[in-house]
């Protein structure tokens, strides 16, 4: 790549660092805008981002037009893998978001506060924001985007979902010319790693989780991952984009993978399924009200021949169904320094490209968001129509299968199969797979079975089937 | 989606059709640009494109800002699935590309001529061009992009590779902040359909091809597909984008799938591989000259655990390896009316978005292309270092495996395995898998074996291993 023949046109008002000039003229008279980046955080993703910006050769040529103006850190003393001039580092994050020599703030702190406040303050100071913070966007996206709209700045969030996989941009632009029917995905690497190892090793959840924690694939407090909360944040964001709708996090039905055992994984495999933690958002089928969506996170039996069934390890995959495109899947590493930094820098490059075409001072909101300004209606989980898998323990006596079948039938639950899978010490283990049924009906049937009115019945496992 | 409150500001100079106004003011004073589209071709993809444009609800809001101004067809009498006002149809394609009431020409004729001439004429008349024509772009891309640069218009080609899968845009933008090491993919649906059926049915090539032709999955003249020429067109385009390089089609080593038999698919499966027609472009490993690329198309043994191994049927998948992102795969339908039209309209929407930010008359080239203006060096296939699979028929006598091993060794070909797979009527069938070797050495060894100096040896099959 021929280097830009950079002639200084205007110098940032600090007049100091040669990396902090603001506008140049490149070769062939092209306008070269150097955007000055303020990094909030120099941890895994922050360092990864800096590493790309400091080493632009063989990359998109606009990477050269991004300069690190400030980097906010917790400690100035810490040894770091990347070397930045000492005067760029500061522990004063507030100073970065209000610095007139910063054009774009990259928020890679994670967590809710001070991330939210810093993002809002950056916006108030007219900075564009690039963030990887799915938790803050899923909760405060409304407030943040409204502030950005008012200030005429961009908030770019490619890194918030699917790590390095181009997800937000394709969904927002290329794929959205389709009428999106459904977005579903494996969006949490930790749980997919755990489920993959459980499946290959026949091991139980607790055992694999402990090992994943030891290896750094799971956090000391694994709640956000294994209870599906991280996946819920991400599907809230994807649903908002795919359906131009506001989705309230509290409305998302969310189940994690703690209750999944080796037993269920084994049965699922025998039945031709892999168990995956799926995040799903879909337009309510057959509903004439456009605003009704299903948004949910739960472990799911995925047919072996479905592309999502073979996504293993820490990888993520986003599967999109639309009209007329059919089915598209975007696959790759869902987390980690390199992949997430790739998404952060992709957003930065998009901003540079915009600055090159956008006359200064133009309201940038026109292209930013077409999101509805009211919450959409989320269909209650009891209204979901889906297939179910359930594992049932009961007294082993003649007629028990008949009793189960009759009880399900009473609640309009049509069974595809009912199989006694094990019997010992007077107990029978029975696995049931239903046809499409209304979840409310299925739950009513299970409640009646579990009430113990007639038989001593336990239902250790209930899973939905894709 | 709230409809735009469209107030006419300026009327196209025909003054007739309400669908042909050119600039509006939308709600909240937003500038609404209606871009007038001239469709060259109303066949499968053209009709699919029109179908999306005529039915914009629940799609990207900018789809509403695209109006069909003209549609060029071969016959005005033909019955069509989509209904357009008769006065928009014409058989005079030249009139469309020079029509002052057309802003963007969509070329979905396919083939080299008149497509190339019409694209160039459209550019000369200051029209932007959206094309699905990989054959024309792979051959005349240079000429076409140079003309576009001179005229200050865009030529958008998302639909040329991978049908509806977002490929060109992610590769050009989001993924290109990475240092791309390799792009490889299944980019021809017909051959993947044939190979998939051969693998599942144990059938031979000719048999499945005939059936695919009967079912409409293969053309009456299947050459472009089964000989890898279509895949070569596509990898030429992907390589040019991934590596900002010009790639000459003639420099691409290209082998098709005619010689693949059920026997090889069976052996590959036993060895843990699927056979796929891969198109591959990669930076020459360990070479300090950035300009050296490998670009090739050939049937390849893909390890079963590689994501490309499980891409079946007419689907396509593009697998991208870069630093620091790692590995990303984009998967979906590689052809067909709906998917290809999705990509065409995605390009149209991008153009509308650009028009909204771009002051009229600005040179649009700045963001269009960073491609080098000279051809890159393509590494000759003899310099390729890869693993090989070969099936060898020879006289069944003691010492023959030793002779083979010795001959390979003489040419620096290190073997991973050499297995006699069959023996009958005095003949032995032997399957050889090598370690990484230089292709030139391997070919020299095969040439010595096939020369018949010592043994009567035939080599019915040679395949590379991923």
From TrEMBL, chains A, B:
It is an enzyme of class 1 (oxidoreductase). Keywords: Amino-acid biosynthesis, Methionine biosynthesis, NADP, Oxidoreductase, Sodium, Threonine biosynthesis. The active site is at residue 234. It comes from the Bacteria. GO terms for biological process: methionine biosynthetic process; threonine biosynthetic process. Gene3D superfamilies: 3.30.70.260, Dihydrodipicolinate Reductase, domain 2, NAD(P)-binding Rossmann-like Domain. GO terms for molecular function: homoserine dehydrogenase activity; NADP binding. This is Homoserine dehydrogenase.
């Amino acid at each position: 790549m021929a280097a830009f023949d950079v002639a200084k046109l205007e110098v940032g008002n600090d007049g100091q660092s040669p990396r902090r000039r603001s506008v140049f003229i490149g070769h062939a008279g092209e306008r070269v805008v150097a955007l000055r980046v303020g990094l909030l955080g120099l941890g895994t993703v922050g360092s990864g981002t800096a590493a790309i910006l400091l080493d632009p050769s063989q990359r998109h040529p606009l990477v050269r037009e991004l300069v690190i103006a400030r980097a906010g850190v917790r400690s100035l003393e810490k040894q770091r893998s990347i070397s930045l001039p000492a005067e760029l580092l500061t522990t004063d994050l507030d100073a970065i978001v209000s610095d007139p020599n910063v054009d774009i703030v990259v928020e890679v702190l994670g967590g809710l506060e001070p991330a939210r406040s810093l993002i809002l303050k950056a916006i108030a100071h007219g900075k564009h924001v690039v963030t990887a913070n799915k938790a803050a966007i899923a909760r405060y996206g409304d407030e943040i985007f409204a502030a950005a709209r008012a200030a005429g700045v961009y908030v770019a969030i490619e890194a918030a979902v699917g790590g390095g996989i181009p997800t937000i941009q394709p969904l927002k632009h290329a794929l959205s010319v389709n009428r999106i029917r459904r977005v579903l995905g494996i969006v949490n690497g930790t749980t997919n790693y755990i489920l993959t190892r459980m499946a290959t090793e026949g091991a139980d959840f607790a055992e694999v989780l402990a090992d994943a924690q030891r290896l750094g694939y799971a956090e000391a407090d694994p709640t956000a991952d294994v209870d599906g909360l991280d996946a819920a944040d991400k599907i809230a964001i994807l649903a908002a984009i795919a359906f131009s709708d506001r989705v309230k996090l509290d409305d998302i039905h969310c189940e994690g993978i703690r209750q999944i055992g080796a037993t269920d994984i084994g049965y699922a495999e025998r039945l031709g399924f892999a168990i995956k933690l799926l995040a799903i958002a879909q337009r309510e089928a057959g509903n004439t009200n456009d605003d009704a969506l299903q948004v949910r996170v739960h472990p799911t039996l995925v047919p072996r021949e479905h592309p999502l069934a073979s996504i293993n390890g820490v990888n993520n995959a986003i599967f999109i169904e639309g009209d007329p495109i059919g089915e598209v899947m975007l696959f790759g590493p869902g987390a980690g320094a390199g992949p997430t930094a790739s998404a952060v820098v992709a957003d930065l490059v998009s901003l540079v490209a915009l600055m090159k075409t956008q006359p200064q001072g133009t309201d940038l909101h026109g292209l930013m968001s077409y999101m509805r300004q009211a919450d959409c209606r989320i269909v209650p989980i009891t209204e979901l129509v889906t297939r179910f898998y359930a594992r049932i323990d009961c007294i082993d006596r003649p007629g028990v299968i008949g009793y189960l079948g009759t009880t399900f039938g009473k609640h309009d639950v049509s069974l595809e199969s009912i199989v006694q899978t094990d019997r010992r010490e007077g107990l029978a283990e029975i696995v049931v797979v239903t046809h499409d049924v209304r979840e409310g009906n299925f739950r009513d049937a299970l409640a009646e079975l579990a009430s113990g009115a007639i038989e001593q019945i336990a239902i250790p496992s209930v899973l939905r089937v894709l």
